[in-house]
Amino acid sequence: MVGAVDDAALWAARARAEGALALAPGAAAPDGFRRLVELGDGSVAGAWLVPVGPDGVTPAALRDLRLGLPALDHRNEASRVLAVCLRCCWTDLAGEPWPGRETSVAAVLGMLADLLPTRLPQTHHRFAVEAFRQLHDSGWLRWRERAGTIRLGPRVAGWPVSELEALRELCRTMPAPIPASGSSPEARHEDSAARAVVPGAASGEETGTTGEGAE
Amino acid sequence: MTHPADDLLAALSERQRDEVVAAWAAVEYGREPVEEVGFAALRDPALRETLRDVLRRTGRDLVRAAPRQWTSGYADDVRRELVERGWGALPEYDRAVLTTILVHSVAIPRSEGHLTDDSWASAVPTTMAELREHTQLARGKLSEALQRLRTADLIRPTRTAGYVPGAQFHRLTPAARTLLQEELVLAAGPGSPLAAAIRAGRGEQ
Q1: A-chain residues near B147 (CB < 8 A)
Q2: Which among A33, A62, A215 has CB closest to B168?
Q3: Helices B92-102 and B128-135: crossing angle, nearest 10°?
Q4: Is the Cβ–Cβ distance between A113 and A121 less than 8 Å?
Q5: Residue B137 has what pLDDT?
Q6: Pick from A135, A147, A44: which is nearest to A105 by CA?
Q7: Which of A124-133, B24-33, B178-187 shows the lowest per-residue confidence on average (mean pLDDT)?
Q8: Span B90-119, mean pLDDT?
Q9: A9–B4: do the CB atoms touch at under 8 Å?
Q10: What pLDDT is stored for residue B44 in this prediction?
């Protein structure tokens, strides 16, 4: 069967199964994808292919069609964790959120404890790990479990521009990230993360904003 | 930024194009199959074929989940190619847990005559005790796998703290459905006459 299937169809199906695809820099993007380039240390570190729908339709259309949105386990917990990660990673609120800088799990847990001080640390940890896993699997976060680090996922780059102002307001109302420890990324004040070059994507409308799971 | 089906959409009137894109979003992004009465591009046979062609350009196909209910799934040739390349496969633990749920909630009840249709809807939950016993996974590994499968809608929790197959099983094409049913028979009863018949059928092809 190899070779019998159209390349664009195969790549689109792969992205349907795996979510946004990480590619080597310079790899060509087939039709139907938005290409995100991530810079690190001034050079291109990698590229993401984010699938787009015909006419740019996003899962947000489900609301207009009055269809059920994908369900998340503990959806409020996942939303709260995503908000905290945005606050920790989105360093320049005047710009776009993606890619932002890397943060640590400890910094995210610290801010969660700040927001809900009556909750036990182990409860925070349990809910946060569950949310990290869900948000990682659906492309909203990149969670490196062993390293204990969090970055924003490629789906954040597709947040509709019309909703970014509400997100900025949300971030402004939240406390500033707490430095977790001397060696954590939070303790370094420079913006260590790559700034993105997002060609032709200034008005990204690609993905939904509901944190829904990938198929 | 173009879409592989732009040329198909360009051949439609503006209204037809909107109808096809709305139906595309409903079957591709919607959690459950949708009623064709709500979508012109599903009701009208000609537009429905256009929608199918649009889906085919991204490796998908239109799937009839029930009379007058539609969803989308991987096109059969694309599914075979994905499997061949190992793209999009579930982690091994997740496959073990999902297979256990399919055997307990579908294959065994069907063999006992409790499930009569060929759908994957089941009212027989697989309990946590069964999952622990048959997968022999550590508690942490099992709960991680269950969470990933729930998030992907491959399984659905029941009120009795068990699991049944999830909404994704509506997305199987008739060929994929047959293949999965055969694999379940081969896994659950390799010595059964039915398994022998399946093996013989495959050998003849």
Answers
A1: 73, 130, 133-134
A2: A215
A3: 130
A4: yes
A5: 81
A6: A147
A7: B178-187
A8: 85
A9: yes
A10: 97
Q: Do B151 and A59 touch (CB under 8 A)?
A: no
Residue where the block lists tokens 């939904």: A208
d(CA A41, CA A192): 8
* Predicted ipTM of the assembly: 0.91
Phi/psi for A149 (5° steps) reads -120, 155
Residue B151 in contact with partner chain A when CB distance is under 8 A:
yes
CB contacts, 8 Å: B154 with chain A? none
The sign of the torsion formed by the CA atoms of A109, A110, A114, A119 equals: positive
Decide: helix, strand or coil at residue B61. strand
Percentage above 70 pLDDT, chain A: 77
Would you place residue B204 in the very low, low, confident or very high pLDDT band (cuts 50, 70, 90)?
low
Dihedral sign of CA atoms B116, B117, B118, B123 in order? negative
- Separation of alpha carbons A51 and A57, rounded Å: 11
**pLDDT of B93 higher than 80:** yes
Residue of A32, A55, A134 lying closest to B4 (CB–CB): A32
Q: What are A144's strand-pairing partners?
A: A149
Say if the Cβ atoms of A73 and B151 lie within 8 Å: yes
Q: What are phi and psi of B4, to 5 degrees?
A: -60, -20
Q: Provide mean pLDDT across the span B81-85.
A: 95
The pLDDT of residue B64 is: 96
User: Element (H or E) spanning A121, and its range?
Assistant: helix A121-137
> What pLDDT shows up at residue B146?
93
For residue B113, give how far its alpha carbon lies from the nearest alpha carbon of chain A (Å): 31
Distance CA B95, CA B155 (A): 12
Size of interface A-B (CB pairs under 8 A): 148
**Edge-to-edge strands, sheet with B34-35:** B34-35, B69-74, B60-66
The predicted pLDDT at position A201 comes to 32
Residue with tokens 């521009």: A161
pLDDT confidence of residue A214:
35
- Is some CB atom of chain A closer than 8 A to the CB atom of B52? no
The residue among B81, B144, B148 with the most chain A CBs within 10 A of its CB, best to mutate, is B81
- Quick check: B188 and B108 in contact, CB under 8 A? yes
Decide if A103 contacts A88 (C-beta within 8 A).
Answer: yes
Is the per-residue pLDDT at A213 higher than 80?
no
Instruction: Choose among A52, A58, A62: nearest Cβ to B3.
Output: A52
